[in-house]
Amino acid sequence: MFTLPILNQEGKEVDKLELDAKVFNGQVNSGVLYQAITAFRANQRAGLAATKTRGEVSGGGRKPWRQKGTGRARVGSIRSPLWRHGGVIFGPHPRSYSYPIPQRIKAVALKSAINAKLKDDNVVIVEDIKLSGPKTKELVKILSSLNSKSRTLLLVDKIDNNLRLAANNIEHLVTQLAVSANAYEVLKAHKIIITKHGLKALVERLKDR
What we know:
Elements: E1 3-7, E2 13-18, H1 30-44, H2 103-119, E3 123-126, H3 136-145, E4 152-156, H4 161-167, E5 173-177, H5 183-188, E6 191-195, H6 196-206
Parallel strand pairs: 1-3, 3-6, 4-5, 4-6
Antiparallel strand pairs: 1-2
Helix pairs in contact: 1-2, 3-4
């Protein structure tokens, strides 16, 4: 059973929280993590690489010379793939690389990613994140109090306008809804900061999977 301190925005401990053993059980399933992350990265690919076939290259409508009697090889178009400036054989065309995986695999992978960060003491629970306005300087001060200096994933139960605008200017910070968290972003981040209500929403999502 894991127990973590709950910190306020100044980085001071205000309470302790016993984590739900159904989610935070210390187990890291590397096989499921591999499947989920490979699928996530495949789904991010734009798949826009494209080449032109001989029919798509402009020009080449006229036969360059007659079929017989010249002593040269027969050619139907100057856009033949055998010619310079011709079409491309078996080249790439726009396509989708995405493929679905079961929701249970995604959930187990997310559990594994969070448990991996928990084992490395890189999970911080904060009571709440409240800003007086869309002030990046104020958010940077809060992150500094929580000892966040490198790539950080901030998981909250809701993203208000102040938080969204303030977080946009911080290069090493990624802000997400806790219910939308994924294993890739969790593993990519060095530190996970999650609000108390965000943690509750995340546990509700994962505890029965």
